[in-house]
Design a protein that fits this description.
Elements (H helix, E strand, L loop, with lengths): L4 H24 L17 H24 L7 H24 L8 H28 L1
Length: about 140
């Protein structure tokens, strides 16, 4: 008996779905609820590092889900492009939500740029990690 398509999609992509919820919760928290760190760390802009990590992890989870769903075969560049667009679009949507919907948050171009950098780094990470695995198979 074959499993329904929604089950197969959920089986491989549930971590990405959960991660989107986590992104929305974390980026929607009022600014006053976010703990402030020492001014020394402000030099490193930990906020931007968090954005890079959040959106990089999202694209990583999408690529990993597709990689394992596809039987550990290389992903097409068009699919990677779609995942990049999804990550970048979500970053833009989050910034707009922070401007118009979320209380105590603001829209920042630098956050959107950090989101985009995270997406790009994740695609590069895919090529370094998963493509090498495919070449060994």
């Amino acid at each position: 008996m074959t499993k329904p398509a929604w089950f197969i999609m959920f089986r491989y992509f549930w971590p990405a779905y959960l991660w989107v919820i986590i992104i929305l919760i974390l980026t929607g928290m009022p600014g006053n609820d976010i703990p402030h760190i020492s001014p020394i760390w402000d030099v490193f802009k930990p906020d931007k590092i968090v954005h890079i990590g959040l959106f990089g992890m999202l694209v990583f989870l999408l690529t990993a889900g597709s990689f394992y769903k596809g039987g550990k075969t290389p992903l097409k560049k068009s699919l990677l492009s779609i995942y990049a667009v999804i990550g970048i679009a979500l970053g833009g949507i989050v910034e707009l939500l922070q401007k118009w919907v979320f209380i105590g948050r603001s829209c920042e171009l630098n956050d959107f740029i950090a989101d985009t950098v995270g997406v790009i780094l994740s695609i590069l990470f895919y090529y370094i990690i998963f493509e090498k695995r495919c070449n060994r198979c």
